[in-house]
Design brief:
CATH architecture of the largest domain: Alpha-Beta Complex
Number of strands: 17
Low-confidence stretches: none
Distance between the termini: 18 Å
CATH superfamily of the largest domain: Medium-chain alcohol dehydrogenases, catalytic domain
Number of domains: 2
Order of helices and strands: EEEHEEEHEEEHHEHEHEHEHEHEHEHE
Mean pLDDT: 98
Bound molecules: NADP nicotinamide-adenine-dinucleotide phosphate, zinc ion
Structural class: alpha/beta
Radius of gyration: 20 Å
CATH class of the largest domain: Alpha Beta
Helix content: 10-25%
Largest sheet: 7 strands, mixed
Length: 347
């Protein structure tokens, strides 16, 4: 086993602190990756604080991993020592069910093995995420980072990028569509960039009053502050597509009213449950859907799309010693627009 420095939460109420995990020696189909950067997702906070229930402690969060291949198993053909690679939200799945065969491993019928707060396929070895200096992963669950991309700005693509790319792509957002992105955080700012790269006209809906200039700089065409309730009426039936990335409980019905006839709103934020009315859906034959990250094939497609369109995250790079402070700032919607941990700080 390979003793590896990490940062972990011991319980839902304790701050993250230095910890050590054991990584397995690479098996025939494994790669050992030296982690260079790891993005900080709001899902890390939800899980560390056990807001979704069932959290496993100690927990080493982190599922936006970029690193360099340090060692490969004897049967690995796809990867070589020195390759720059990524690992996203899961590190294995059953590989046999319909979802896995369709390349939708995130929906594996036997349960995907999440990068952290989960177990390996044996059902008993805990998984530990990217807030650590290295990780051993099966070669089939590793992504290729296209050459020339700024690595600290690429890490967030492994979750925030794919989570926004997948619904924008699958629900057919196209040039000229009126798209609204709700919540300008890690996911939201990637949603803006990717929707713009797809040719849409993008409006940011934000409860913060201070993000207008940033939204426009990130590529948005328009900005609406939702703190003024009148905007919901003024912008009724305006958008073809709404991507809701809000991490806290809020009223979906109000946003649905901004969809035009046959428009679609996709939820990717995962806060506490809230009440939904039938009326705003029925009245304009609107649709409400959800979306969960993306499979390996689609994640690679997203990375290639971002490389081709020059899309990467806007990041604030931090040493891991500042992780607890970063969480507090994210909870105040004060993230511009993704914290990324420089793992050299843990070396
Ligand atoms: P984040 O960076 O913290 O951004 C969340 C944004 O939501 C904030 O910047 C803020 O934007 C808005 N917001 C926060 N509190 C709010 C409130 N009380 N009322 C209205 N708006 C509020 O979080 P993230 O990493 O983007 O993640 C967002 C959500 O997506 C989380 O729930 C996360 O767990 C979930 N997620 C889901 C998937 C998936 O596959 N479906 C994948 C990753 C993450 P403004 O300041 O602009 O209003
Ligand atoms: Zn995430
Ligand atoms: Zn499966």
């Amino acid at each position: 086993m390979l003793k590896t420095p990490a940062y972990a939460a011991a319980s839902p109420t304790t701050p993250l602190a230095p910890f050590a995990v054991e990584r397995r020696e690479p098996g025939p189909h494994d790669v050992l990756i030296d982690i260079l950067y790891c993005g900080v997702c709001h899902s890390d906070i939800h899980q560390v604080r056990d807001e979704w229930g069932g959290s496993i402690f100690p927990m080493v969060p982190g599922h936006e991993i970029v690193g360099r291949v340090a060692q490969v198993g004897g049967h690995v053909e796809k990867w070589q020592v020195g390759d720059i690679v990524g690992v996203g939200c899961f590190i294995d799945s059953c590989r046999e069910c319909e979802a896995c065969r369709d390349g939708e491993e995130q929906f594996c019928e036997k349960g995907m093995n999440a990068t952290y707060n989960s177990y390996e396929r044996d059902g008993k070895t805990p998984t530990y995420g990217g807030y650590s200096t290295r990780i051993t992963v099966d070669e089939g669950y590793v992504l290729r980072i296209p050459a020339g991309m700024p690595l600290e700005r690429v890490a967030p693509l492994l979750c925030a990028g794919i989570t926004t790319y997948s619904p924008l792509s699958r629900f057919g957002v196209k040039a000229g569509d009126e798209v609204a992105v709700v919540g300008l955080g890690g996911l939201g700012h990637m949603g803006v960039k990717i929707a713009k790269a797809m040719g849409a006209r993008v409006t940011v809906l934000s409860h913060s009053l201070t993000k207008r200039e940033d939204a426009l700089r990130l590529g948005a065409d328009d900005f609406i502050a939702t703190s003024d309730e009148r905007v919901f009426k003024e912008n009724a039936k305006r958008f073809d597509f709404i991507l809701d990335t809000i991490s806290a409980q809020h009223d979906y019905n109000a946003f649905l009213g901004m969809l035009r006839r046959d428009g679609t709103m996709v939820l990717v934020g995962l806060p506490e449950p809230t009440l939904l009315s039938a009326a705003p859906l029925i009245m304009q034959r609107r649709r409400l859907a959800g979306s969960l990250i993306g499979g390996i094939r689609e994640t690679q497609e997203m990375l290639d799309f971002c490389a081709e369109h020059g899309v990467a995250s806007d990041v604030e790079v931090i040493p891991i010693q500042r992780i607890n402070e970063a969480y507090e700032r994210m909870l105040k919607s004060d993230v511009r627009y993704r914290f990324v941990i420089d793992m050299a700080s843990l070396g």
